[in-house]
Amino acid sequence: MANMLDVAKLADVSPATVSRVLTNPDIVSDHTKDKVLKAIEELNYKPNVLARNLRKMENKNILVILPDITNTFFSQVLRGIDQVASENGYRVLLADTKDELDLEHEYLTYLDLKIADAAIMLTSRNVEAIEELARKHQIVLACEYIKDSQLPMVSIDNIKSAYKATKHLIDLGHQKIAHISGPMDIILNKDRFEGYKKALLEANLKFNRDWVKEGEYTVDSGYSEMEKLLQLSAPPTAVFASNDEMAIGAIKAIKNSNMKVPDDIAVVGFDDIKWASIYEPALTTIFQPTFEIGKKAMSILLKLIKEEKEDFQLERKVYEGELVVRKTCGAKNNRD
Amino acid sequence: MANMLDVAKLADVSPATVSRVLTNPDIVSDHTKDKVLKAIEELNYKPNVLARNLRKMENKNILVILPDITNTFFSQVLRGIDQVASENGYRVLLADTKDELDLEHEYLTYLDLKIADAAIMLTSRNVEAIEELARKHQIVLACEYIKDSQLPMVSIDNIKSAYKATKHLIDLGHQKIAHISGPMDIILNKDRFEGYKKALLEANLKFNRDWVKEGEYTVDSGYSEMEKLLQLSAPPTAVFASNDEMAIGAIKAIKNSNMKVPDDIAVVGFDDIKWASIYEPALTTIFQPTFEIGKKAMSILLKLIKEEKEDFQLERKVYEGELVVRKTCGAKNNRD
DNA sequence: TTGTAGGCGTTATCAT
DNA sequence: ATGATAACGCCTACAA
């Protein structure tokens, strides 16, 4: 395969000029540019990105570390990242941790190895490792974040959103509201739990520890946690689940007990994944602007890369989660 | 950041030896190895992959071109690819075409530019471009394939699978079976249509052009095509859809017409995506071994990379699609 | 506007 | 078993 020197010879110019035609055409005279372009064409020359990478000490790859590529929630974020990345000549290097801590750790080493120029983390469990790395590399956290950290971050206000979800149930007249949380080692779920409690407190409803169950983000876990809730001597009349999968699992458990949603028990989810509106009954849930989050995360990352700036405290964006009312919540009359 | 020369100096050896310790430790004596390792440790040296890439003229990136990252069907394939890739020191460079032909084309240029070493195509519309590229690069087609092409390929037998799906409906007593196809410019959908016709023919059922509608793979398109089917003077009693999304859209349309699935109309989907079993009624569909397909595609690609072989005609694998019977098909009594 | 030349950090070849 | 040296192909001062 022809290289730059071959092109230079054929066009009777120096390699430097060929390089200029490729990366900075404006500073080359039209005449030489034509010659070079012709030679490029004739030799079917393609620049060798590997060489360019070494020379420029960058490879335009953005590492995106995410916990589960199977989750459509993340694929929307990915789309947002990808869009802004492409527009700016960057590419996405996919790193699916499958929720394995070790993998997250391994992917993180890509930065030092220069396998990627910078990273967006959609999961962030290795807190110390990330903070350490962020001193030398550009890293943006999205969706998930690190408590008490000043790292650049994009997410929604989980506390407030969970509050909204719970408040919605309270406004509908529910007094016995359960919560199926996600794994509590993830800060998001702590926040959502907190928002739930806050709404309860504000409405002077008693907080019942029995009504809080910890699930694993899956339909199955939503199902089994709901089953436990139903077996309580005083079962709840409404449930707020920390994600849509678990909410749907809960609905299935309710149906399976010959009860109806929303007539007997109301359910609210979280995330508004694609299938939340397709499932029947269509799920009332909290919409996260996933595409926007992805775009914003990548935009911030670009800014960091360009400016090499240290004071990224300001590079944070918190969106509002929006309550999307569909069919899984009904009014509760006060008979019981 | 320290480089190999720094390490060499500190350890008092040549750079070549440091390189050997890193890539071929066995041929270095224990004593020198220790020295080098200690120096690496002390300097916190990390090899520069950019330099290695140039020198070896490869970057261990596998380009995976897929039509829609939002589709969980593909994310399972991705997982399979990723697993085998990781095990062999390769990484996945994600290329989501969003079904845009231009983007597919652009991503394909990555091969010549050496942005990726080889590619797996989960979509293949640019037929000539791909065949052309495959002469110089290693490319494996997965799921989708190219008609009359000898390129390495992994997929299921779509004709046979569609035949199975349709046959299932016939065996249940259905005689008026409609088909909602996917976009007909995709060979998969032609195949599935063919399997459908074959089953009809074999059972001496008449093929009715009015009962075949072309959808766009989405829930919404399944819904609207089904609505058209329901408005027919002689509506079908069963529908075979070319993917699960459309099947679910069809079910929604049926429900919306105050009819029941499977009592009034039976539905079969295709793919067995995650949500096929979660949706209610749980969808009867064709299971594709997506994870296996991904693994196999990557395995074949590795073989091609290693052997640089030309005769990849043999590198093809066709899996069986499996009918998964759930709740959307019922027996049709012969009253009507 | 264009050319010259050095070097990015590694690995492979050839000696020793 | 180890060292010296020459690439890999490109970009970018600096010089002309």
Written account of the structure:
2 copies of one chain form a homodimer. The first copy, chain A, is built from 12 helices and 12 strands. Chain A has 336 residues and is of the alpha/beta class. Chain A folds into 3 domains: 1-47, Orthogonal Bundle (434 Repressor (Amino-terminal Domain)); 51-154 and 292-319, Rossmann fold, CATH 3.40.50; 158-288, Rossmann fold (3-Layer(aba) Sandwich), CATH 3.40.50.2300. In chain A, helix 8 runs parallel beside helix 9 (187-202). The model of chain A has no long low-confidence stretch (mean pLDDT 94). The interface between A and B is large, with 40 and 40 residues. The first copy, chain A, binds a DNA duplex (16 and 16 nucleotides) through helix 2 and helix 4.
Give the oligomeric state: homodimer
The CATH architecture name of the largest domain in chain A reads 3-Layer(aba) Sandwich
User: What's the order of the H and E elements of chain A?
Assistant: HHHHEHEHEHEEHEHEHEHEEHEE
Q: Name the chain pair whose interface involves the most residues.
A: A-B, 40 and 40 residues
CATH topology of the largest domain in chain A, by name, is: Rossmann fold
Under CATH, the homologous superfamily of the largest domain in chain A reads: Response regulator
Give me the count of strands of chain A.
12
Mean pLDDT of chain A: 94
